[in-house]
Specification:
The structure is a homodimer. By secondary structure, chain A is an alpha+beta fold. Chain A has 22 helices and 17 strands. Among the domains of chain A are: about 160 residues, 2-Layer Sandwich (Uridine Diphospho-n-acetylenolpyruvylglucosamine Reductase, domain 2), CATH 3.30.43; about 120 residues, Uridine Diphospho-n-acetylenolpyruvylglucosamine Reductase, domain 3 (2-Layer Sandwich), CATH 3.30.465; about 120 residues, 2-Layer Sandwich (Alpha-Beta Plaits), CATH 3.30.70. Helices cover about 35% and strands about 15% of the residues of chain A. In chain A, strands 12-14-13-16-17-15 form a six-stranded antiparallel sheet, with helices on both faces. The longest helix of chain A has 20 residues. The N terminus of chain A is likely disordered. Chains A and B meet through strand 9, helix 13, strand 11, helix 17 and strand 15 of A and strand 9, helix 13, strand 11, helix 17 and strand 15 of B. Chains A, B: Keywords: FAD, Flavoprotein.
């Protein structure tokens, strides 16, 4: 276990370093000479997103556009790793746990597993005010390791927090103040494809396997999972399942709910083995009872996933439409008429303008704007990104049918939009890196998201944007907000709002600004006919708003169900359901 | 409420009577002059399946084939309705309930809500040995009626059984012996389309709406649900949801799980309102926690269903393949390559032969056999039924791609098989009527079903057939069994086994024969990697085998979840989970 005991000992091959130094790296690429494995945590930023070797630049006129909305910005000073390490207190775990080979109480290891990627997490990582650290981090290598840890948790009365990729944006993995010690269980060592049944198209994985490792290991057999959340580079199968993730191509490949066939959940009451049966009428679905349990019931150790052969063809394209209404109608009609696309994404006019600024040089921006203007698209124009993935004949029919719908609504497509589609596909996992780039300029950015029925989409988007834009009015601060639809269903769609605001005089004041915006954002969702989260989960941050969606009785039955498996409430308390 | 208080007062229009007297009636057809509604229960057989005006003949050489397997048969004597009515005891319900306008304690009403359609139910209905009758039947007209009934149940400590179409084949709605009175709540009066949101394609229905009423009411607006279980003529939305039903075209339209968007569940703890959101990452899915609850948590009163426009085109076809292996490979490859069919069904060789006998005259049988033999298909041949439903261009591509696969595996298709496809589609809801026809000849028939991964399909089918065929070996009795795949998934498929055996010297001895076969059948499933039921639910009959699938911990968490909503265990006790 020495390879994980310390964050500096894991092997990092020269190949992967070489790959990751270029901005054009393909995150899926991996050396064929050894089995692919997860990104070692010491190769990730301790106080930001992603691989230390990857950066994403922001175009100067993109930054200028944001500042034209929110005003001049000033960078806040960040604390150093060494300074924070000094604040890590002595572990409170019992000696029996501390001395285990799979457990580390190293300060840096504990620090690197203390926070996720929510805005408050970033404030903590830059201010140094972490508040609480886990008392230790375990790196189990098997289901029986996890069983042993949960038995010890019961014997010695400590809290357990499961940790996948540490990418939560809702406070899923943050230890809370309390008298009981906290052991974080990091699943990073369980990162291998264990079995592939090609007849049934079921792949069994260690639940700690990260996105690129999942796909690289399947690719060696010609298979694909097809789950691409924005956090894909670091997030894990277990995390996706526990927090009900959705990927960019959910229209084609389904959400994680459609992919997760069964597996092993280690609970304080023992092992819950969810059998992988294609479909069943035998009572409530254990899969669906445990998906979204966010560590409150137990820890997924091995998971069986529905996979499929690599697609014969995969394409991503862009089209522009005259306005939001036209774009929305195209999306709705496409999904409701069963056109076999793998993704549909629609930016509203503000987001379209911002994307064109952020993703281009001034001369490219001018060229695209002029091109679109000549074809009658102006300030109201919206950008639609779509894809196909699969059999060529099916793709061809899908594109033919979709192009017909696009044309009916006055779309503009051409060589330039095709290039934009490829550029989007190539850079799609690098957007999270932009947050750090903007942070360095004093531009604070965060997102929130929901889903609602088509009937409510416009009203809901309006409510969300207005709520956020006005959230700092009492301080005279402007907030810039824009929205896209990223996942579509016959019944409705998801809405994903991005917002920018200025850092305040210090980290604490900046956090207070965020809290105001976050509250306004959550209320705009909770007061609508919408979910508090379509793809980010509940965590700590959304728990206060969950009852608006589930009702008090829904909360009660969920709580009783989880308590059945964790009667002493030692599994990730405070997450999902408020105490 | 007079229209339901007595079973004889409900209006029956001359139109519907005329329609139902012909054997060729289209069950979907309905008068346009008044809103379509459910089949009144007094128009159904009190001791068998379906509408009293519909019969299905068995071909003499079909019956001969069955007898060539199981031997000569003798009809058992059946009890009359009048004889059974004399055995209905006095109601034990409190006066406060008996006097309610929506409650009937009429003996025939109670008798008609005492049993479903399982084999033991048929024995009860023909022997007269009902054992237990509900103490009364309520016919609520609203959610608040149901709330009131559950409040009274708590005040007066009686048991509640929800009743949809009374079509359970697993003992879901049978009252059990006990000291507490039993009120059956029949949902037949809540049978109307209440709202249709065409933007979001969501239809809100009373949960007691039967299949033909659902489709007729949607059809008036050009919409369709597309859920066609074998019991469709009488079964209801609430029943489908509560027992996780699957319809014949699940490949195209999805299972009930994909259709049910949300709704109102009245529980002893109050109303659980499940909001209709297209998708959510906000914790465990309440929909999936309550689907399959089989009345143990509460009663669905209003349900929101995902619907779609009527398909532009719908076709059903038949193909023959040389053997099971070829047929199975065609199915697996079609579903795994995303060919957009709406159904795929494959009869094994024994079932193919039996279907050809049962569905034809001797001269038709000879013509088909000769035709197939001339094309190289003989005793091992298997019949594959498939369909498309939707957009013409998508259907065309699907059929082109599927035909290519069929040909690769040596299929035979032609005008004659196309006719067989149409005949199947036309008569598909009449198969359940055959049971009564065979019963009259002393031929006992029942079915059971499961689902498993493709890897296990052959082994599982073998186990199931062998178990059933040998179940009466100790009596020297032969059992005829055959199997088809009726629902396919990328991961696996369902297996549906039909078996025939001889009535014994009396009803009690016949029931003992069935019990032996049922136990062997259930063990063959429970000992495999398969579900105890893919589409019939658990009820009383499968409850003893549920732990094999869910594990003891899975049973515990399900029990605790349901108890949260029904702490006094008055909702349909004994169903789903053994006491």
């Amino acid at each position: 276990m020495s390879k994980t005991k310390s964050p500096t000992t894991k092997d990092t091959s020269p190949e992967s370093e070489t790959i990751s130094t270029t901005d054009d790296m393909d995150l899926i690429a991996t050396s064929k000479s050894q089995p692919p494995s997860n990104t070692p945590i010491e190769q990730t930023r301790w106080n930001g997103w992603g691989n230390v070797n990857i950066n994403k630049k922001v175009s100067p006129h993109g930054a200028k556009l944001i500042k034209s909305h929110i005003g001049k910005t000033k960078k806040l000073k960040s604390v150093s790793l060494q300074q924070v390490l000094k604040t890590v207190p002595k572990s409170r775990l019992p000696v029996a746990v501390i001395e285990m080979a799979i457990v580390s109480t190293d300060s840096e290891v504990r620090l690197r597993h203390a926070r996720g990627q929510s805005f408050p997490d970033w404030i903590a990582m830059h201010s140094g005010d972490f508040e609480v650290f886990p008392d230790g981090v375990a790196f189990p290598e098997s289901t029986s390791d996890v069983e042993q840890l949960l038995t010890l948790a019961q014997e010695h009365d400590f809290i357990v927090i499961p940790f996948g990729g540490g990418t939560s944006v809702a406070g899923h993995i943050n230890p809370q103040q309390g008298t009981r010690p906290v052991l974080t269980i990091a699943m990073s060592q369980m990162d291998q494809l264990l079995d592939l049944d090609t007849d049934s198209q079921i792949a069994t994985f260690g639940a700690g396997t990260q996105g690129p490792t999942v796909e690289a290991q399947l690719d060696e057999h010609g298979y694909r999972l097809g789950h691409y959340p924005q956090s894909w580079e670091l997030s894990t199968l277990g995390g996706w399942i526990a927090a009900r993730s959705s990927g960019q191509q959910s229209l084609g490949y389904g959400r994680i709910e459609q992919m997760f066939a069964g597996g092993t959940l280690v609970t304080p009451q023992g092992i819950l083995n969810i059998v992988d049966i294609p479909a069943s009428s035998a009572g409530p679905d254990l899969r669906e009872m445990m998906m979204g349990s966010e560590g409150r019931a137990g820890i997924f150790t091995e998971v069986k996933m529905r996979v499929q052969p690599q697609p014969e063809q995969e394409l991503f394209k862009v089209a522009f439409l005259p306005n939001w209404e036209a774009g929305k109608e195209v999306l709705r009609q496409a999904v409701q008429s069963n056109i076999k696309l793998s993704m549909l994404r629609l930016s509203n006019a503000i987001e379209t303008d911002a994307h064109l600024h952020l993703g281009t040089s001034p001369s490219q921006f001018l060229a695209i704007s002029t091109y679109l203007k000549a074809r009658g698209l102006d300030a109201d124009k919206v950008m639609l990104t779509y894809g196909v993935s699969g059999d060529k004949a099916q793709n061809k029919l899908a594109l033919t049918q979709f192009n017909k719908q696009l044309k009916q609504y006055g779309s503009v497509t051409g060589k330039i939009t095709d290039i934009m589609g490829s550029v989007w596909a190539h850079g799609r996992f690098k957007f999270p890196y932009l947050r750090g780039t903007l942070w360095e300029r004093g531009i604070m950015v965060d997102t929130f998201e929901t889903a609602t029925n088509w009937r409510n989409i416009d009203e809901q988007m309006q409510q969300m944007q207005t709520a956020v834009q006005n959230a700092l009015a009492d301080e005279g601060e402007a907030v810039m907000a824009f929205t896209h639809i990223s996942h579509v269903y016959k019944q409705g769609a998801s809405l994903y709002t991005t917002y920018f605001f200025r850092a305040a005089k210090d980290h604490a004041a900046t956090l207070r600004r965020w809290q105001k915006i976050k509250r306004a954002a959550c209320l705009s969702v909770a007061n609508g006919k919408a979910t508090i989260s379509h793809q980010h989960g509940v965590g700590h941050d959304h728990a206060p708003y969950l009852a608006a969606e589930k009702g008090q009785l829904g909360i009660q039955v969920t709580r009783d169900m989880l308590k059945s498996l964790d009667p002493e409430q030692r599994m990730n308390p405070g997450v999902l359901l408020e105490e």
